[in-house]
Design brief:
The chain is mainly β. It has one helix at residues 26-31, and strands at 5-7, 10-13, 18-23, 34-39, 46-51, 57-59, 67-72, 77-82, 91-97, 99-101, 105-107, 117-122. A hairpin with a 4-residue loop joins strand 7 and strand 8 (77-82).
């Protein structure tokens, strides 16, 4: 699999919005579940959202109603639209391919991780 590449992070005031982008191969984004994780400083990495084949979406309780994951197959890109951002959303956001859902979402050893993009929300 091709390593995903994230973009769109930055500094935003609480209540504002950002849209993250994740680009990778067609196989990665069309054939496999793709999602977003985040990791705040000093904390464990946590699941944020996922999109499965063909269009099913899933969200962590902490972001439901505020974040939306979507896919543009023509551009081989997955997006994470983040609205009504909170200071608690501050973290490095990672895109990953080949997610699996059991009791929780995780990335298979064969999956790929992006390098991450920083999102900082001021309170």
């Amino acid at each position: 699999q091709v390593q995903p590449v994230e973009s769109g992070g930055g500094l935003v005031q609480a209540g504002g919005s950002l849209r993250l982008s994740c680009a990778a191969s067609g196989r990665t984004f069309r054939m496999l579940a793709v999602g977003w994780f985040r990791q705040a400083q000093g904390k464990e990495r946590e699941f944020v959202a996922a999109i499965d084949w063909p269009t099913a979406t899933y969200y962590a309780d902490s972001v439901k109603g505020r974040f939306t994951i979507s896919r543009d197959t023509a551009e081989n890109t997955v997006y994470l639209q983040m609205n009504n951002l909170k200071a608690e959303d501050t973290a490095v956001y990672y895109c990953a391919s080949d997610l699996v859902h059991g009791s929780y979402w995780y990335v298979r050893p064969s999956g790929r991780w992006g390098q991450g993009t920083q999102v900082t929300v001021s309170s």
